[in-house]
Each structure stands twice: as C-alpha cells, then as structure tokens.
C-alpha cells in the first residue's frame, strides 16, 4: 500500500504504520512451534517458543477472522498429530515441523472479514498455539453467548471435551437408569463429566485414575460411587470384578491396552463401549495387544469409535441440558491452569504422565 503520509511509532511491543486511510498495527506474536516429528513420549524440547510479529489488519476483501487467543486446550489427541506417518483419516490434520501446533481454544475477534463475526465477539474452535491467529471462519465452531460461566469452560466442560462426554455417553452409550458404568481416565477433561452425567441419569459409576488425590477427587467432589488407583491393582480384571460383581453395562473407553482387555471379560450381555480415546497407546512404538476380543461376540457387545465433530449439531441441545446443571451446582468441573504461552509445552507433555489434575488449560491472555 502506498501512503502519502506515513508516521511510525515504536514501542517495546508493537509499532504502528499510520497512513492517510488506514492504520496498520504490528504486534509481537509468540508461537509454540513443533521442532520435528515425535517418536515415543513427547518432551518439552520437541517444541520451541518462537517470537514473531503479526499485523492486526486484514487484507482488503479477506473473509478470514483475526483472533486474539485467550485460552488453549491441552488434549491427549494432540500427541497423535505429532507423528510422521498417520492414517489417511487424520493425515490432513497432522502438525508440520517448523509451524505452530493447533488445537481448540477460546478467542476474541480482533477483526473480521466474515459477516457472521464482528470485532469483540468471543468464540471457540480450532486455532493455533500463538497469541494471535488469522483463521478461516470455518475453523470457528461457535460464538460464546453465555458468559456467566468462566470463559475457560469453553475449552472443557462447554467445549470439545464436554460435547465428547455428552455424545459418547448419551448417543453411543444409550444409558438406562440403574446400569453399571465404568470410566477410565476418570479425572480427566472428559471422564469427570461422563461420571457426573451417569450419576444424574441414575447409574452406578466407578472410575479409575492414577493417584490417591485423583481417586479422592472422583469420590468426594465429583460424586462417583467408587474409584480406584489402577497403578495399585496388579490384576485389573480382578479389580473390576470386585467393583462390578454383576458386570459392566457401559465402559467409556479413554485408555485402551490392558484396561480394555480387563474390561472385556467383565462386561454384561449387550454392553456398550463408546471409544473416546486410547491414551495408553499414543506414545508406544509397539501397541499393546488385546486378547479378550471374543467377549464382544459372546456378550453381543456394541463397541464404537466416534469423532465429536459428527455430533456438533447437538450443541444447542447440549447447552440446554448442561448449563442449568452448572448454574445449580449439580455438575462441577476441575481445571488445571498453566499461565503463559511459554508454559504450553510443559502443560501439554504433562498430560501423558498424568501430571495434570483435571482439565489442562493454557492461559494465553486474560480478556
């Protein structure tokens, strides 16, 4: 753009190029960059914090949306996207070494070229791990209309994890009052909600977690009937038999591997297994084998994987169901917040060793 009159103001954070017709502001934009594809357990050093700059103006005629990222969601599936060779179904979402990683986030619209969004709107959807992101409008999933709850909730209970718990439990689990429900990784972003939904529905609920503190959380704050530390159970199948002497009707699968194998021999006839994730397998170069698959046949089990994006059309119904429960204190949510983009790699890597206590959220900026 050619300017007849141009003045440049410098500061430690930004500079502004002021023209006769337009103001172009350039600001610092720190990013979390993937250094290279990852094998095995991810490390903080697999990611770099890189300082770049971004102009806070859209090009004329652009339909994109410029976002200021406020909260970023740390989710187990992100580890899969760090792999070099991915199945065709997910390869289009793979991270690119040398570029920012992506995930779900809560953002504020800085400028919009799309008619559905305007400056100041709060939104949640897919964004990059950086302070500001220029995204196609299609990456924004929903405007945030209800702000009487914490904005960070839209990375968790009112965002992708909440929808995952809701769709997996109600749409795939098809629960009936009085049924027996087992939730693995039960203190995580999704598991803690599945257990509470099950209790509201009149089910008996047991969860597994990886520490005494998390077990206490499940029983004393989240309302699970029982909970146990899977690390203290040398025989997982026997432990499940102890908690479910009559068998399991719904297993909400978050873990895979040996836990899944133990569950299979403890299922009741016509049990359901919504497969949300298999976090125990994400960092392995040789996956665990599952030996008890014949139980699926003998017990007429319905086991189905799912992608939450197939259920986003239910989001208004989901909010109608959940918001009153949150406001009345019938459903609670535990968050583990890390402050600052520079702490993003540690927060994300901590998921895979169970370091987080509740839903892991990265706070980039306060509104």
Automatic annotation (TrEMBL):
A GO molecular function held by the record: 2-alkenal reductase [NAD(P)H] activity
One Pfam family hit: ADH_N_2
SMART domains the record matches: PKS_ER
Claim: Oxidoreductase is one of the keywords in the record: yes
Tagged with keyword Oxidoreductase: yes
Signal sequence, renumbered to the chain: 1-25
Entries under InterPro entries matching the protein: ADH-like_C, ADH_N_2, ER, GroES-like_sf, MDR_fam, NAD(P)-bd_dom_sf
Superkingdom in the source lineage: Eukaryota
Membrane spanning stretches: none
Key words, A-Z: Oxidoreductase, Signal
Domain Enoyl reductase (ER): 65-362
Stored PANTHER family: PROSTAGLANDIN REDUCTASE, PROSTAGLANDIN REDUCTASE 1
Protein's name in the database: Putative oxidoreductase
